[in-house]
Backbone:
């Protein structure tokens, strides 16, 4: 993730994060890392999509997996 910008209307609501991965195991690794973080709660996978090396895709060929994960920011972190 390059950056994350939140406004006050989204502080207690789930949001979707999208990442690229090399394989399906990357989805589990990212989810686990977010679950262990002190920033997010209620972490779950929404989608894991394999592009199959689609040449028309705008994703790098080395990262054919698009991973979407839903997270909710922890209120105590946002008050800091």
Residues:
């Amino acid at each position: 993730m390059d950056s994350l910008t939140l406004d006050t209307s989204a502080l207690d609501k789930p949001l979707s994060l999208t990442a690229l991965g090399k394989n399906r195991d990357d989805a589990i690794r990212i989810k686990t890392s977010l679950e262990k973080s002190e920033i997010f709660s209620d972490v779950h996978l929404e989608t894991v999509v394999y592009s199959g090396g689609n040449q028309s895709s705008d994703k790098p060929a080395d990262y054919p997996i698009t991973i979407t994960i839903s997270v909710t920011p922890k209120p105590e972190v946002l008050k800091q």
